[in-house]
Amino acid sequence: MSTKSGRILRFLALSVSGIAAMAHAQVPAPSTTSAAPEYVRQAPKGAPNIVLVLLDDVGFGAPSTFGGPAQTTTLDRLARDGLRYNRFHTTAICSPTRASLLTGRNPHAAGVGAVMNSSDARPGYSGFQGKDTATIATILRENGYATGAFGKWHQTPDWELTQAGPFDRWPTGEGFDTFYGFQGGETDQFNPTLYQGTAPVMRPAGDNYHLTEDLANRAVNWLHTVRTSGPGRPFFLYFATGGIHAPIQVPKEWIDKYRGQFDQGWDKLREEVFARQKKLGVIPANTKLTPRPAELPAWDSLTPEQKRFSSRLMESYAAYLAHTDAQVGKLVDDLKANGEFDNTLFIYVVGDNGASAEGGLEGSLDYMGRLTGISPAPDAKAFAREGEIGGPSTYAHINSAWAWASDAPFQWTKAVASHLGGTRNAMVLSWPTRIEREGGMRSQFGHVNDIVPTILEVIGIPTPAEVDGVPQKPMNGVSLAYTFNDPKAPERHSTQYFEVFGHRSIYHEGWMASAFHSRYPWTVSADNGRPFEEDKWELYDLRTDFSQSRDLAAKNPKKLEELKALFTAEASANQVLPLGGQAPGKGTLPDPSGGRESIDYRQGDIGVPEVALPRMFSLSWTMRATIDTTDRARGVVAALGGTDAGMALYLDGDGRPKFTYRLFDVKTVDLVGPGPLTPGKHSIQVDFDYVGGGYGKGGTLKMAVDDQPVSSDRIPATPYLFSIHETFGVGLDTGAPVGRYPADARLGYPIEGAKIGRVTIRVR
Questions:
Q1: Which whole-number Å values give the CA distances from 168 to 103, 181, 609, in the listed order?
Q2: Residues near 651 by beta carbon (within 8 Å), at least 6 away in sequence
Q3: What is the dihedral of CA 78, 84, 87, 90, to 10 degrees?
C-alpha cells in the first residue's frame, strides 16, 4: 500500500469514528421561546430610530422657530412635522446638561454638577460620572441599537483625558460604538482638536473646512454604514455641535446674509423678538418682557465705533446659528431620502443652556483672553479688525447684552440657574409615526432629564435596575410621551431643582423660588465671596407669569419658605450640598500632571492636555529639544495651544529655528535663530524667566541654539491656561496653528527631514 493510500484510509477511519461519536452525543432540544440568544442583541420589533441633537449656548429667543433673528429652517421643518416645547429646561450650563440629558438623572446625582473645567472634590461636582448612572447609549446598545456620537462631549474628567486612559468616561466607554468629535468645552471651528474614538486625529485636509459640516457629513456616512452593514438594526445618533459656543467662526458667505440686521441694537432687537414670539404663539399673549439688568449698558450709551463693532459680532453670531441648523438639516434630508424619517424620534434641543454672556460687556475679538483677564476691552486696534470677525484669525464672542436679548423674554443668561434665561431652552420633537397632529405646541414642564425616560418608553424598554452588574440610581426624569397626542395633559414633572455657581432655584407645581448668587455671568472671577445666607430669594407663579417677571416674595412669604425648604431637601438628596468650596475631608481631585516638575516627551507624543504638562503658570520654565537634522529639515518640533494663544517651536521652510508665543490679542513674540540648522545633532532651548511679584505676571523669553543665546523678548503677562481644548504635541501641531508656518506647509506642519530625540519641559 502506498503512503498516500494509507493516509486516505486513516482519514476515512477517523471520519467514521467522528460521525459515530456525534451520533451518540446528546443534541439539545430546539428552543421553545422566540428570544434571541444572549450573544444576539435585538431591539424590540418596530423600534424607532433615535436622533438626539444638542446645540450649544443658544438663547430661547435666538432661533426663528421661536421668534429669533437667526433663520433656523431645519428647526422650522421639524416643528411643522412635529411639536414645539416652550417650557423645556436645561441645567444652565454645559457639562451638567449633557450628563443629565444622557443619563436621565439630575446632574449632581450623576457627579457632574459643574462644568468639567471648574469641577472640585465635592461628590456632586467632581465631574466623575459613576457607572451607577448608565447612559442611554449603554442601555440602547445592550438592546440591539447601533450607537454613534458626533461632536462635543465635555464629560470626561481632566485626569482621564490623556492617551494613557482610562477611557471609561470617553464616549466609547459610555455606550457609543463610534465617536468623532472633540473633548473640551469648545474648539476652533476651522482647525479643531479632534478625536476618532479615543485617538487624536487631524481634521481632513483642504480649504473651506468647517467642523459642523464635517460632523454632519461623518454622521450621514455612519448612518450609511449602519444600513449596509447592520440591516434592520435601529440606531441612536447623538449629534452635539460646537455651534454656537464661542469662538464665533462661520463661513463668510453666511455672515454676509446678516449684514446690517442688528444696527438697531440689543434693546430694540429684544422688543422685536418678543413681538414675534407673541405672533407665533410660542409665549402666552399676557407675557411680560423683563427689563434689562442695570449692570448691562443701554445700546444708546455706546460710541459709534462700539456700535459698529458690536453689530458685526451679532451678525456673525446669527450666521453661526443659521449655519449650524443647516448642517442638522443634512441629517433630516438623509433620513427622508432613505425612508427612515417617519419612524425616527428626532429630538432637537436648541442649546445646553441660555445664550452665553461670557463675551463681556464690550464684546470680544478674543474672548479667552478676556476670560483670563489678559485681553483689554476692544479698542481702536480691535475696531480696525472688525472685518475679521467670524473668520479663522479671531476668537470672537458677542457682548453680554446681545446674549440677554437672545434670551427674550426671560431674565439673565447662561450659568444663571436661578432664572429662566439660563435654563429655558427651545425644543422640537418629531415622530410622524406616533404624533397624530403635527405642528402643535406643548407647554408642560420638561427637563433634559426627561429625554432618557421618553426614549425608553417609546421603544418599550423597562428602566434597568442594573447595568453591567452595577445597581442603578433611580432616574429623576419623567417621560414626555404623554404629551405627544394630548396638548392639555396635566404635567407629570412637578418638581425640579437647579444650581450652578451657587445660583439656585426650585420649581414645584407651577411655582418657582429663585436665588441669584454673587457671580455675574460676564465676570472673570468665579465668586465675590458673598455668604449664601445673604442671597435674596424671589418667588414667581409661572402658571400666570410665563417670563418670571413678577416677584411675589413679599406677598406670599409662606409659599417662599415652603419652596426654600423643598430646595434644601432636593439639594440634600442629589449631592448639591455643600453649595460652596471643597467638601470637608474629601481632599482634592487627581492632578493630571502627577505634580511632576519635569517631563520628557518624544516624537509622536500628541494629544497631551495642557493640564497634564508640568504646571508653568506664574513660574519660570525651560523647554529643551534635541534634534538630528538633514539638509531638508522643516516642521514642528513642539506645539501647545492655538491661533489665539499658545507657543510653538519649529523649523521654518529654510530649516531655521523659530519660537512663536501668542498671548491672545495682546502680543505675539517671534524668536528667530541665526540661520538654518546644519545637518547633524542640535539642541534648541527656550527659557522663560518669570518676573515674579504675584500671579499671572510677565517675564522674558529667551532662545538658544546649541547652547548659544540667539534671541529674546518680553511678554507682559502669562495665562493660567492657553486653552481649555488645545493640546500639546511633538512633531505635529494638531489643532489651530500656533506658529507662522510656511504657506506651503502641510496640515499640522509635521516634522520632515529630521528626527526629534526628546523635548523636555521643566519648571524651575
A1: 15, 17, 17
A2: 629, 633, 634, 635, 637, 657, 658, 676, 677, 751, 754
A3: -10
Tell me the C-alpha distance between 628 and 626, whole Å. Answer: 7
Q: In whole angstroms, what is the distance from residue 700 CA to residue 703 CA?
A: 10
**What band does 9 get if pLDDT is binned at 50, 70 and 90?**
very low
- In terms of Cα–Cα distance, which of 186, 251, 119 is closest to 645? 186
CA distance 57 to 247: 11
* Cα–Cα distance, 192 to 184 (Å, whole number): 11
Q: What is the DSSP code string of 52-103?
A: EEE-SS--TTSBGGGT-SB--HHHHHHHHHSEEEEEEE--SSHHHHHHHHHH
Q: How far is CA 255 from the centre of its chain?
A: 23
Residue closest to 597 by CA, chosen among 764, 434, 730:
764
pLDDT at 14: 36
Beta carbons within 8 Å of 119's beta carbon, 6+ residues apart: 112, 125, 126, 127, 157, 158, 589
What pLDDT does 355 receive?
Answer: 98
Instruction: State yes or no: pLDDT of 668 exceeds 60.
Output: yes
pLDDT recorded at residue 145: 97
Which of the four pLDDT bands, split at 50, 70 and 90, describes residue 585? low
Residue pLDDT, tens place only, 361-388: 999 999 888 888 898 899 999 999 999 9
List C-alpha distances in Å: 320 to 279, 479, 489.
Answer: 25, 32, 36
Which pLDDT does position 524 carry in this prediction?
Answer: 64
DSSP 9-34: HHHHHHHHHHHHHHHHSPPPPPPSS-
Tell me the DSSP string of 364-397.
BSBHHHHHTT-SPPP-HHHHTTGGGTTSTT-B-B
CA 440 to chain centre: 30
Contact 664, 644 (CB under 8 A): yes
Q: Name the 3-class secondary structure at 757.
A: strand
Find out whether 467 and 376 touch, Cβ atoms under 8 Å.
Answer: no
Which residue would you say has higher pLDDT here, 719 or 624?
A: 624
Q: Which has more confidence, 583 or 125? A: 125
Region of residue 388 (phi > 0: left; psi between -120 and 50: alpha; otherwise: beta)? alpha
Q: How far apart are CA 34 and CA 44, in angstroms?
A: 12
pLDDT band at 582 (very low <50, low <70, confident <90, very high): low
pLDDT digits (tens, 9 = 90+) for 13-51: 434 333 333 333 333 333 333 455 666 688 999 999 999
**Mean pLDDT of all residues in the chain?**
93
DSSP secondary-structure letter at 418? Answer: T
Q: Rounded to an integer, what is the distance from CA 721 to the centroid of its chain?
A: 18
